[in-house]
Amino acid sequence: DFGRSSELAFVVEPSDDIAVQEQPLILYCQVEGIQPITITWRKNGVMILDSENAFMLANGSLYVSRFQRVRGDGSSDEGEYDCMAQNHYGLVVSRKAKIQAATMSDFHIHPQNAVVEEGGVARFQCQIHGLPEPVILWHKNSMPVNTDNERYTLLPKGVLQITGLRAEDSGIFHCVATNIANVKFSREARLTVSGSHSTVYKDPMILVGPENLTLTVHQTAVLECIATGNPRPIVSWSRLDGRPIGVEGIQVLGTGNLMISDLTVQHSGIYVCAANKPGTRVRRTAQGSLVVQAPAEFVQHPQSISRPVGTTAIFTCVAQGEPPPQITWLRNGQILETSDHIKLKNNNSTLSIYGINQADEAIYQCLAENSAGSTQASARLTVLWADGLPSPPQGVRAETVSATTIQVSWEKPLQNTKEIIGYVLHIRKAADPVEMEYQEAVSKSTFQQLVTDLEPSTSYSFYIKAYTSRGASKASEVTVVSTLGEVPAMPSLFIKVINSTTVQATWEPSIKLGQHKGFKLYYRKVHLSQYTGPVLLASNVTAYNITHLDASVVYEVKLLAYNQHGDGNSTVRFVSLRETVERTVLHPPCDCMKDEQNNKTSTTGIIIGIHIGVTCIIFCILFLMFGYRGRLLMCKNVQEQLSTPQIPRSQRSTTGLVLNGATRRDRDERDLNGKQLDMNELERLFPASPSQEQQEKGITLAHSPSAPHNETQISTLPLDEFSIIEEQPDPLSKPPCGSSPAAPAPNHGAANEG
């Protein structure tokens, strides 16, 4: 069974009750478990002794013969009762039962006289307090109101609503309140129905809206809303948070009262009553809050467990309710006190017992309680102990090795060592709680353990247990030792050259350095053994300038962090100022005074240079334009000359005909004008070359076969009448038109000079 210890548990627990004055009262309590079991009762935490007024029955229930709210000695039978059961396994306590006396006060609200026109709405109310809650009924003219009439609505809180009033509704009304304590009558009130039904328009108006309610799950909530107007308004309900109200368990009483049966926590919220004029958006609203509480109940019960001596026992108890319940732990009926080895976590939902021993064997109870009720669950811890277990390990010692390492050594137990299968070393920071402890397993032949990855300058506690297949020994004595302090780590160092005699050393602060008091800076010339320094710098300093250096040598700069435990490892950098000096020689700094004196002269020179450059560009452009135009004219002249018919031989001899088609005088003139024949054009006109035989006898020139046959002329020139004029190329002259400047001179034809 969940939440029960098989050795001892409750089957029936006392429940809340309302007792009647001078009447007997029975509180039930039934327990199961291993006999013998002793049952006792308490009221408000005080043991109840058997007397004539109160005594325990054979089944364990408590019987109160005459319940008294107030006795002659000033005591009262009202209070919180609980039942305790005990056997040799432990003790358990039941939930607390709240016992109250049945009462009824006088009416504090009486119905009032009312005059309402026909067709209107009448409302009467009376209120009275009592335990249990009084049932209120209404009478008209000394007769119970007919509840079968749909126009009459009775609400649980003592409200009577009458809608669609008629003349026969007039009369005298009063209410009757009844509970187990008493019956009471309110004052009378007269209802007068006047006139006939009015047809005058009236805006919708809410006479009474919903009130704030706080109830418990499974109860019924009635939210009142009564509205008037002409025409009769339509009443509707909604939730302020926009969630749907739902349909299950929802009912409308009368013309607009909302009743919610079998309440759950999800019904909590703010409810809005709206009175709407039919066919329009004219409306009036009123709102009230509904709070639904739920008594504490367990989601997870604690479970009985068995654990060997020296191990850890954990109980878990999770409860829910509205409002959230508070959890309290009991050990054998007494409130559990926390200590170094007993801890409560997760809002008391988890109970942890570290290093258990036989004294921890008991029944542990979890009590969950809120304003709506309480509940309890129990579980038993059994501590396993076997005969012949080893005694605790002896001579536990711990020695500090470094800032992060401690060596722990011990000696084997004095008794029952044959069955030992290993040892477990328990490690914990001395300042940490027990649950932060961790363990390291060691073989049975090892009597020392090097514990690493510890924190510097920190105290640690150690103890050892010897383990067998049947359980563990008791813990050894605890030894506490501290690790050494740790020097800081290496800082990051950067060197920046400022000028030919100064460098700047910079570094970054970092948490990786650990705690440090400051920095030490050293520097030296690399060919020397002696450092300059140390320069002591505070822990918040991150830069230092080293001045008056020699630019011709290389320097070594060293930086380290230090603290009370010593100096950390250093970071070394090398720097040369020679490159800076060379850059200064190649690019000397400007003489600002001299530059100011020469500023005007330099500006004038720049302007003159710009003018000269522009002038040269203009002349080059003109030269190219005129040169190109000249070449076009020359090509045109050559074409005209070549198209002229050949002259007789006699005339050619006198005119000095040459292959180029011009006399030397003409060639000279063309040379002066910078004009030349287009050799490509000549090749096109005379493509064929004469054979070797023809070259010996003379030169034969013929037109291209594609020329018309009637224009074909053949000329044969003797060698003695043929001369070659060689022209030297003028480097300044332009190439012929239509040819590339880089192209070689074309072949003008084969010519042999005898």
Describe this structure in words.
By secondary structure, the chain is mainly β. Among the domains are: 9-101, Sandwich (Immunoglobulin-like); 105-213 and 227-246 and 276-281, Immunoglobulin-like, CATH 2.60.40.10; 301-384, Immunoglobulin-like (Sandwich), CATH 2.60.40.10; 393-482, Immunoglobulins (Immunoglobulin-like, Sandwich), CATH 2.60.40.10; 494-577, Immunoglobulins (Immunoglobulin-like, Sandwich). It is built from seven helices and 58 strands. A hairpin with a 2-residue loop joins strand 5 (38-43) and strand 6 (46-47). The longest helix is centred in the last third of the chain and has 44 residues, at 599-642. The radius of gyration is 60 Å and the shape is flat. Keywords: Disulfide bond, Glycoprotein, Immunoglobulin domain, Membrane, Repeat, Signal, Transmembrane, Transmembrane helix. Belongs to the immunoglobulin superfamily. DCC family. One of its GO terms (cellular component) is membrane. It is a single-pass membrane protein.
